[in-house]
Design a protein that fits this description.
Integrase_cat-core, 6-stranded antiparallel beta sheet, zinc-finger, metal-binding, 6-stranded mixed beta sheet, aspartic-type endopeptidase activity, zinc, Cathepsin D, subunit A, domain 1, alpha+beta, 33% helix
Length: 1273
């Protein structure tokens, strides 16, 4: 609760000189550290600081960091539990529920920070306004003024707002009144900068000097007045002044209270003050030393101290206060000897509960009750005998068990006093009984809400219940969890039956015991009374409606005027419409696909189902009892206060009289014993389960499990207490079972079971229960849900793409926000905001769009922010934050918003060839990045886009952006950007290669070449001359907004390292592969292997899943994701895994467990060769030619006996092109397979030769064919 405080006793010891005499007593001040409980509305930053102080005091601050190596796991777990308990003790009760099971203090601390330390722009704006408008309030001290100012600065620091120290100092000076102008001028005179600490110290010193001057002036005036008085007493009479006479009282005036009618000696106020002073000094003993005083304050009449002294000289724990003992056993002959050999009788032994320094309550056992003592003693010897280690250092005594501080004491006057207090008294039994009674009525009324219970308690209808808060109820969560609530619908009806709502629910996959699959409900709008009837088929609606109509109109004497329903076939059938027409009933229908218009009936059905789920879960009954539960739930709803009735129950509004039959209500499904009369020796009662009431009969409706039938009886005994006690601990038992049975199963997760619709209505309507709740995931044995009515077919993504435990972590950094709100609330919001501002600046500079109103007939596409982090250079920790505004191109329509979308990118082989040439000819290699590359493409279509989030123009929030240039996310953006860049390069007299359209080159005057490779917005430039590279950079910067990344270090995830002295360039994907291994669970505990694929793996399609269980298991395996990650590594830098990846990629459409084992084998191979990459080295022999190797594997495919082609080409000793692929046709012989392999290799060789010729490099082509049979055929 707000204002509630947790007090922790803290002893402060003043320091003294080591040379001080031992007889002097040190002054001791006993203070209490009060921590306000956090309730979600008070200052989280200050609460966090106070809790941190408590953790420091208890030496538990280590748990907020990583685990030290010198502490074992068991001790670390105990310390974490201790710290979690401490933190939770400072939380309000309502805020503890999400963190009840948390056992890691670090995670608990981080969750609280994420939830309550909201780093939004609104909070920053509010605090900055407070800072800049901060002014000195008259009447407060400078110390208070500085505290208020520092509080604002601390709140801004918690929001990661960085304010320069000089700005802090200037804002503080600006807050001062005009009296401090002279001081402000003095502080700023002749200084180039000013610091906050200097200003704060100057202000405090200035205030102290003013106080001292004021004190001195008052003392001088007092001395002058006293001197005159002494002169009068000594007989030296001076000249009197008229002003001094006014200070003396009149003859009949009291000199103390200044009231007339008595003198000072008879003043009653003075006498009362002297009594109070005497009483306060009665229990204070002063030592004879004038330098030091030591006071012992007594809180009890008999002089017993309430503190505990940690004594190494006593044999047992001893206490003189009998009321402190929680358990006590009397002794007759016990004796305790004091230091002077005097004997004190021990009258008993027992246990006392102590609240320690960390808030935990511990029990002190074997405590002797010695009434003659005046102090409470804790024996250090007794503690040590129980395994505790005693340490005394720095004035603090600790009793430690392992790494846990069990007891702590502080030194005062050479005695160690316990930091803690005594817990006196027992548990509040009455309060517990009240809570149980409230919970009992909560369950009796079908898990009614707290507001409804309070309304009934105020009317005195619930016996024994009080208006207190309900505890956490798991059955309410399981039965009532929803996502979105319907809006409140209001019908201005003047009487009952003026307006009736109806709806049909079903079909239920679980038939009730009576065979029902549906139920129909009728709700009176005026009273909100509900009638529910179960049905076996939907065509029974008309028959039930006529039966209900006749009954209700006869009982009430009123006619139904209006009936609202959905467009279900049962309501729009000709017989139903004819009945309503004949009876004069007006029909209201809902709009198609709009169940909210029938909100009263839909919400009532949801309320009914919530109660049914709660009651079935609470009673532990199967779904076959849903019909009995729905009937009893309608009975309860009619007796619960309704918000539409201003707190009155539907029965009270309907009949005009309050309902008083609550005493007959019982918990649904509770054990009930009904009276039977059989033979004389048989039991007189049988056990059954309470199901509700029967219509027209004064008796209870019971289910007899033995006979499998419903019994109605009047003589029934209910056992509700057992059910209440069982449910009280159900949550803890269930949590224990879950923890004990949980196992780390590899990628085991239950799939989402799609729901089929069994209805054939022309206009289906989704029931409120299905419309409101998220799709649930149930195990196979629970696929039969209670009911789903007219459910629409939902398009769900494949199960293999769902979030999966350890393997579904993205390869990217996990701290990258996925949306704008997440970015502005993250700890790096300043950097993300800066990157977004830079992106918007580029967009406006490029005139990407103009704000217009959306024309009629046009539709605007959306947009979103996409965030990424990029390393500035290899081996450095500085990270570049990047934000991109991306249009939601998936909403574009072909032929309207776009036509052609193809855009070429440079081949990876071209990149490797360029690096080989750089190593061979010692070329300069530079890298550039185009800022907002796609923004430079001109659009040919008319496209409108919504304004970006966080940057909407004030006053034009509903306007849209008419795109004038291309934008990221548009389908035609890559093509438009490439066309624009290609025109520019051709205009600069560069030639586009015929073999790779993203490779540009130009021959210079000295015969050398300059090369440029383009991959979307990343560029590599290579040339012998640095001047030519700089000239090209200048040309590009004049046309586009460029970012010079300097020497190439990393491109497309490939890391480039160059040793220019040795003429070497290496290319690897170390960082990428480490993330892949981490993503798929490969760590230091995994065993590496030496080959990409072992010979024992004979993969074929026969290993695919054959049973539903195997298919279910493999549906959870990220097989395609793992193969895709390996495939990218194979394409870039790892030709050694080409053949292995080629094999496992054949079964991506239907992988089996054997295929998954092969993929994990490849990952284990990557684990041992994560540093392996490509090496290009200057060589006078191999650098002058292209060397190729080709081979084939005849009939290696076990499914279709197709052969495999494999080849690799190298330049300067490093591979530049390779492939391992299954041949498209079946070879009839090894010779035919080798011919096809050589053909593919020659085609690649021709492409390589053509590209090298374009680049001005003429090299000899050497081809090595492993099998020589082809050469002699």
């Amino acid at each position: 609760m707000a204002g509630e405080k947790v007090e922790i006793l803290k002893e402060k010891e003043s320091t003294s000189s080591s040379s001080a005499p031992t007889s002097n007593r040190h002054p001791i001040a006993s203070t209490r550290l009060e921590v306000d409980k956090f309730n979600g509305s008070n200052n989280f930053g200050m609460w966090q600081c106070e809790v941190m102080d408590v953790l420091y005091q208890q030496e538990l601050d280590m748990v907020l960091e990583d685990k030290p190596e010198d502490i074992d796991d068991k001790q670390w777990t105990r310390i974490n539990l201790h710290a979690c308990a401490t933190i939770r003790s400072f939380l309000d009760k309502e805020l503890k529920y999400p963190y009840m099971k948390e056992t890691s203090a670090k995670k608990l601390w981080m969750k609280l920070e994420e939830k309550y330390m909201t780093k939004s722009a609104e909070n920053r704006l509010f605090l900055k306004k407070r800072l800049f408008r901060f002014q000195y309030r008259s009447g407060i001290s400078m110390h208070e003024h500085l505290n208020d100012y520092n509080k604002i600065l601390a709140d801004l620091a918690n929001l990661d707002v960085i304010i320069p120290d000089e700005d802090k100092a200037l804002c503080l000076l600006n807050s001062l009144p005009d009296d401090y102008d002279h001081l402000t001028t003095t502080l700023l005179y002749g200084k180039s900068e000013v610091k906050l600490d200097e200003v704060s110290a100057a202000l405090v010193n200035h205030e102290c000097r003013k106080k001292e001057q004021k004190t001195q002036n008052s003392q001088t005036e007092a001395l002058v007045a006293r001197g005159r008085t002494e002169e009068r007493k000594s007989g030296k009479r001076g000249k009197s002044r008229s002003k001094s006479r006014g200070k003396f009282p009149a003859k009949d005036e009291c000199a103390f209270c200044r009231q007339k009618g008595h003198w000072k000696k008879d003043c009653p106020k003075l006498k009362n003050k002297e009594k109070e002073k005497a009483g306060s000094e009665a229990n204070v003993a002063k030592s004879g030393d004038e330098d030091f005083e030591f006071a012992l304050a007594s809180s009890s009449a008999d002089g017993h101290s309430t503190e505990w002294i940690l004594d190494s000289g006593c044999t047992y724990h001893m206490c003189p206060i009998r009321e402190w003992f929680s358990s006590f056993e009397e002794l007759d002959d016990g004796v305790v000897l004091m230091g002077n050999n005097n004997a004190c009788k021990t009258q008993g032994i027992g246990k006392i509960c102590l609240k320690m320094h960390d808030g935990t309550v511990r029990e002190l056992s074997d405590v002797r009750y010695v009434p003659d003592m005046k102090k409470n003693l804790i024996s250090l010897g007794a503690l040590e005998s129980k395994g505790l280690k005693i340490t005394m250092e720095g004035g603090v005594l600790k009793a430690v068990h392992g790494a846990l501080v069990v007891m702590k004491g502080t030194r005062r006057n050479n005695l160690y006093f316990l930091q803690g207090s005594t817990v006196i008294g027992g548990a509040a039994v009455t309060e517990a009984a009240d809570a149980d009674s409230t919970r009992l009525w909560h369950m009796r009324l079908g898990h009614a809400g707290e507001k409804a219970l309070q309304g009934l308690v105020k009317q005195g209808l619930l016996k024994g219940a009080k208006a207190c808060k309900l505890e956490f109820c798991e059955h309410c969560v399981l039965g009532k969890q929803t996502r979105v609530k319907f809006g409140t619908a209001i019908h201005h009806t003047k009487g009952i039956l003026d307006y009736v709502h109806t709806d049909v629910w079903g079909p239920s996959k679980n038939a009730s015991w009576g065979g029902s699959h549906y139920f129909v409900s009728f709700v009176d709008d005026f009273s909100r009374r509900i009638w529910v009837y179960t049905m076996k088929r939907k065509d029974e609606v008309l028959k039930i409606f006529l039966k209900w109509k006749k009954m209700i109109e006869t009982q009430s004497g009123r006619k139904i005027k209006t009936l609202r329903s959905d467009n279900g076939g049962e309501y729009k059938s000709d017989p139903f419409l004819k009945v309503c027409q004949d009876e004069g009933i007006v029909r209201h229908f809902t709009v198609r696909e709009t169940p909210q218009q029938n909100g009263v009936a839909e919400r009532m059905n949801r309320t009914l189902l919530e109660k049914v789920r709660c009651m079935l879960s609470n009673a532990g009954l199967g779904k076959a009892f849903w019909a009995e539960a729905i009937t009893y739930a309608s009975h309860l709803i009619n007796r619960l206060p309704a918000a539409a009735n201003e707190g009155k129950t539907p029965m009270e509004v309907w009949s005009g009289k309050p309902c008083t039959d609550y005493k007959y209500l019982h918990i649904f499904g509770c054990p009930a014993y009904y009276h039977v009369r059989e033979s004389k020796l048989d039991p007189r009662a049988k056990k059954a389960l309470f199901m509700g009431f029967s219509t027209g009969v004064k008796g209870y409706r019971l289910w007899c499990p033995d006979e499998k039938k419903i019994v109605v009886s009047r003589d029934v005994t209910f056992d509700e207490a057992a059910m209440v006690n069982q449910n009280k601990h159900e949550g803890e038992i269930e949590a224990t079972k879950t923890m004990s049975s949980s196992k780390q199963v590899e990628l085991l997760k239950t799939p989402v079971v799609p729901v089929r619709s069994d209805t054939t209505d022309t206009s289906p309507t989704v029931d409120s229960d299905d419309e409101e709740e998220a799709p649930t995931q149930e195990p196979p044995q629970q696929q039969d849900s209670i009911a789903i009515r007219r459910s629409r077919r939902e398009i769900r993504k494949p199960v293999r793409f769902t979030d999966i435990v350890a393997y579904a972590l993205p390869v990217i950094e996990d701290d990258i926000p996925s949306a704008y709100k997440e970015a502005v609330r993250s700890s790096e919001s300043v950097e993300w905001k800066k990157s977004m501002d830079e992106e918007m600046k580029s967009l406006h500079k490029n005139e990407t769009w103009e704000l217009v109103q959306l024309p009629k007939g046009k539709k605007a596409i959306g947009c979103k922010w996409v965030y990424a982090k990029k390393m500035e250079s290899l081996g450095k920790d500085n990270v570049r934050f990047k934000a991109r505004l991306v249009a939601k191109g998936y909403a574009q329509k072909e032929g309207i918003d776009y036509n052609e979308v193809f855009s070429p990118v440079v081949k990876h082989s071209s990149i490797r060839i360029l690096l080989a040439l750089v190593a061979q000819f010692d070329l300069e290699l530079a890298q550039l990045d185009v800022k907002t590359a796609f923004l430079h493409g001109d659009l040919e279509e008319e496209i409108y886009m919504s304004q970006p989030e966080g940057f909407k123009v004030a006053g034009k929030e509903n306007w849209v952006c008419k795109l004038q240039k291309s934008l990221y996310g548009l389908k035609q953006s890559p093509r438009q950007w490439y066309k624009r860049f290609d025109r520019f390069m051709i205009g600069q007299k560069y030639t586009r290669s015929h073999y790779d359209h993203c490779v540009y080159f130009r021959k210079l005057q000295d015969g050398t070449f300059i090369y440029l490779l383009l991959y979307v917005d990343d560029m590599l430039i290579a040339c012998k001359s640095k001047v030519e590279i700089e000239r090209l950079k200048t040309q590009l910067s004049n046309e586009f907004e460029m970012k010079d990344l300097g020497e190439a270090r990393k491109i497309l995830g490939m890391e480039i390292e160059r040793d220019r002295a040795k003429g070497k360039i290496s290319l690897c994907q170390k960082q990428y592969l480490k993330k892949v291994l981490q993503r798929f669970g490969m760590n230091e505990n995994s065993k590496p292997v030496s080959t990409p694929l072992a010979p024992h793996f004979k993969l074929s399609a026969s290993m695919s899943p054959k049973t539903g269980e195997e298919s279910h298991y493999m549906a959870q395996i990220p097989y395609a994701s793992a193969v895709g990650s390996l495939m990218y590594a194979m394409v870039c830098t790892r030709p050694d895994i080409s053949q292995a990846v080629s094999i496992v990629s054949r079964y991506m459409h239907n992988p089996g467990k054997g295929h998954w084992q092969a993929v994990k084998w490849i990952l284990r191979y990557i684990l041992g060769t994560v540093d392996v990459g490509l090496l290009f080295q200057h060589d006078k022999v191999t650098g002058q030619c292209v060397v190729g190797y080709v081979d084939s594997d005849y009939a290696g495919d076990l499914d279709k006996r197709r052969s495999t082609t494999g080849f690799v080409f190298t330049i300067t000793g490093g591979p530049v092109s390779w492939r391992s692929i299954l041949q498209s046709t079946v070879a009839l012989s090894t010779t035919e397979a080798e011919y096809m392999a050589v053909t593919e290799a020659i085609k690649e060789a021709i492409w390589l030769q053509g590209l090298l010729d374009d680049l001005g490099v003429h090299k000899t082509m050497w081809m090595f064919i492993v099998t020589v049979r082809v050469l002699f055929i």
